[in-house]
Amino acid sequence: MMEPFEVRAHLTAGLAHAAPWATSLDGLLAAELWADAKAMARDHGEFLEAVGPGTVPRDLDLPLTRCTLAGGDDWHWNATCAYPEDRSDVPEIHYWSGRPDHRALEQLARYRPAVISDRQGRYRARQMPLLLTSTRTVVWRGVGDTDVVRTILAGVDAIGKKRSQGEGQVLKWEVNPLDSDAWTAGHLHPNGHLGRLCPPKCLQATPNVLTGGLGRGAIRPPHMHPFRMRDVHMPWVPH
User: Fewer CB near the terminus (10 Å): N or C of the chain?
Assistant: First the structure.
């Protein structure tokens, strides 16, 4: 049964993300389904190749409805990006460091120089800042099959960047029906501002919705693929 719903993730401390807006629900579901598909292929002795930049990626069958207001191949899933409910005004700064494994370089290269500098060049050691959005809960909204969404999210232990280092750990998931119309649930944050990347045609009937402005971005997963890029309205992000 397809219906408007709300997803809430209870976090240990917060999550790290690259873009001004946080993780999208359609991207999160697609990543989990793709990981399951790769694991199943390995169990059968098969291998799923990554989609190259010159190949049109196929759309996974997500438990969400589609918004087709833009027409043609410019449709997107009815789902928003994560909305921090009690975010701190100032991000918390964590750091990660890395340095090359010299033994691994010996195994990969035919010739290795006597000295590999840790201070300069492509193999230098790194210490990088990681901005963490401090919040106890994040919320997504969407339209779809709540039972299937709940089942998929049950296997997700962390969200955002640097999950293997303990960032973005999820304590509990909640998926509940939402008393809302389908367009609002699939496009807007709880505060009524734009909650996802969407084509301008999606907002023609609601021109007063506050957005993050026009830009270039991915309309649906896989979000890093060039064939998914469109001119879109960006989600509203609190400053």
Answer: C
Cα-Cα-Cα-Cα torsion 192, 198, 204, 207, nearest 10 degrees, comes to 40
Structure token pair of residue 22 = 């946080």
Q: Look at the chain and count its residues.
A: 239
By the 8 A CB rule, do 216 and 231 touch?
Answer: yes
Q: How far apart are CA 45 and CA 49, in angstroms?
A: 13
- HEC sequence for the chain: CEEEEEEEEEECCEEECCCCCCCEHHHHHHHHHHHHHHHHHHHCCCCCCCCCCCCCCCCCCCCECEECCCCHHHCEECECECEECCCCCCCEEEEEEECCCHHHHHHHCCCCCCCCCCCCCCCCCEEEEEEEEECCEEEEEEEEEHHHHHHHHCCCCECCCCHHHCCCEEEEEEEEECCCCHHHHHHECCCCCECCCECHHHHCCCCCCCCCCEEEEECCCCCCCHHHEEEEECCCCCC
**Which of 226, 200, 227 is CA-nearest to residue 213?**
200
Contact 195, 187 (CB under 8 A): yes
Q: Is the pLDDT of residue 224 over 80?
A: yes
- 222 upstream amide cis, omega within 30 of 0: yes
Quote the CA–CA distance of 116 and 100 in Å, as a whole number: 9
Instruction: Examine the pLDDT at 74 and tell me if it is beyond 70.
Output: yes
Task: Please report which confidence band the pLDDT of residue 105 belongs to, taking 50, 70 and 90 as the band edges.
Answer: confident
